[in-house]
Amino acid sequence: MSINFKYTFMKAPIVKCIVCVFLLVSCIPKKSPVETTVISPNGHTKVDFFLTSRGEPSYVVYYKKEKLIDSSKLGFELRESLPLSENFKIINVEKSTTDETWDMIWGEDAQVRNHYNELIVELEEHSELKRKLNIVFKVYDDGLGFRYEFPKQKHLNNVVITDENTEFNLVDDHKVWWIPGDWDIYEYLYNTTKFSEINALKYYKPGTHLGQTYIPENAVNTPVTMKTNSGVYLSFHEADLTNYAGMTLAVDTLNLKMKSELVGNNQNIKVVRELPFETPWRTIQIADKAGDLIESKLIINLNDPSVIKDMPYFKPMKYVGIWWDMHIGTGNWDYSGNYHAANTAYAKKMIDFASEHNIHGMLVEGWNTGWEKWWDKKNKKIHFDFVTAYPDYNLEDIVSYGKSKGVELIMHHETSADIVRYEKQLDTAFTLMQSLDIHSVKTGYVGRIIPEGEYHHGQYMVNHYQKVLEKGLKTQVAINAHEPIKATGKRRTYPVAIAREGVRGQEYNAWSNDGGNPPEHLTIVPFTRMLGGPID
Predict the structure, then answer these.
(1) In the Cβ-directed half-sphere of 346, how many Cα atoms lie within 13 Å?
(2) Of 304, 307, 302, nearest to 147 (Cα)?
(3) C-alpha distance from residue 10 to each of 13, 17, 20, 359 (Å)
(4) Over the chain (536 residues), what is each successive 10-residue block's mean pLDDT?
(5) Where are the beta strands (DSSP E) in 167-223?
(6) DSSP letter (8 states) at residue 404
(7) I want to staple 55 with a disulfide (CB 3.0 to 4.6 A). Which of 87, 165, 222, 232 is the partner?
(8) How far, in Å, CA of 411 to CA of 461, rounded?
(9) CA-based nearest residue to 88, from 37, 54, 49
(10) What is the pLDDT of residue 295?
(11) Torsion of CA 216, 218, 224, 230, to 10 degrees
(12) Which residues are catalytic?
């Protein structure tokens, strides 16, 4: 009895210890069977990708061991199909390093270094359809970019995206420089507030801008720049916006979160694509100093190499011209006005001024027929003709006179946002420029988009701006787009994308009722809007 009792007494603790060890082992998080972390070449920026317990793609970003972006989810809402947002498994992971240098055809640098570490995560659903989605991260010393890839697959041929649910979850209430997430224009003063104080709807005042404005929720346009309490600068934007909707960022001021809000149309369709395809890059620029954001080449590096080798027909230049007269009321765009400013005599006077002051370009607005009641979309008899000049403007004579003085004419195409009519005239309009040896054009898109229901920053218009760039390449014409889609670094791939307006600029100083642009505004623009690319 005593022996048995001793045996039992000694055995019990052993059993308890075994159970205890088992419980401890089972509580340790299981390591992923594959490594899904990618670090910048200098070791400062780290991105951890992972799947949640529900199979939701997610990521975290660290900079110098400080968490900058907390756990943030990735995914999509689709029309007539289940969301692509959870129930995934990782089926493959690839890592690589790229370090190359490429020549900038024109711009701020002769050469650009493109150095990054890449992580490609291939996902597949735990479902009968086994839908696939890849997520690609490129991590640079100056930040990171990531995008979605929809590979060719058996059970998914095309998608209608109603929402892209890319999250950026902040870790603190940062100082932010922002403008409202308008679907048509970027022409707002920049606000400087805490993230928790962002209120884009407060600045939505219909009728106060030339363009039709629409802000469906509290959101900001990109690039949006922030400063953390530890002094790190962040800027959120996108790169290589091609055949996709522009991205605004919906703001959750309570939980310090941002989520991608794509610009749609009146049918709540954001993107329609056939597979395979890639989305634009979602970008986060990271810097210890504000000036380092300007030096960053992240946005332009995330675009494809140039489709041309050189542009001997164009170089950046200053220009004068005929347009300010109309803004301040001393001239008219239309021929029937009190004083039609776009006339041959005045154009030659401007050319003389440019030549005398070593200015090599001269722009003329109001030269072509169609300016009478051009804002009246219901008047079908009034529309722009991009090859027919008013009687008092001799296009060929002005071009010839400018060449004799070393001054190039810059063409002007104001479309009044009637995309249907403009695309019908693209061939003839650009052929005319090519025949006259004109190598640059300022395009304009003031007003509500035709066809109805589309917005300036939606997929329809993104594709239109792309058509114009491609037409410019074929005819050797550089494009300076006003009322544009924002710059996302496409000037690398299509160097004819010279500049874009897309900012509240000089025009407001002529006719605004609120005193024009305060000095602070222009000091903010280089660290926000201009991070995407050059402005006019």
Answers:
(1) 20
(2) 302
(3) 6, 12, 16, 98
(4) 35 39 37 80 98 98 97 97 97 98 96 98 96 98 98 96 98 97 94 97 69 85 98 98 98 98 96 98 98 98 98 94 94 93 98 98 97 75 89 98 98 95 97 98 93 96 98 98 97 97 90 85 96 94
(5) 167-170, 175-178, 191-194, 219-221
(6) H
(7) 87
(8) 21
(9) 54
(10) 97
(11) -160
(12) 507
Amino acid letter, residue 236:
F
What count of other Cβ atoms lies within 10 Å of the Cβ of residue 3?
Answer: 7
Tokens for 330? 């001393």
Lookup result for tokens 């090599």: 360
Residues in the chain, overall count: 536
- C-alpha 188/C-alpha 515 separation (Å) is 13
Q: Are 79 and 162 in contact (CB under 8 A)?
A: yes
Instruction: Report residue 414 as tokens.
Output: 């104001």
Dihedral pair phi/psi, residue 127, rounded to 5°: -155, 170
Q: What distance in Å separates the CA atoms of residue 102 and residue 244, rounded to the nearest whole number?
A: 26
* Strand residues in 396-524 grouped as ranges (E): 408-414, 440-444, 478-481, 497-500
Q: State the pLDDT at residue 380.
A: 62
Rg (CA), the chain: 28
How many CB atoms are closer than 10 A to CB 319?
19
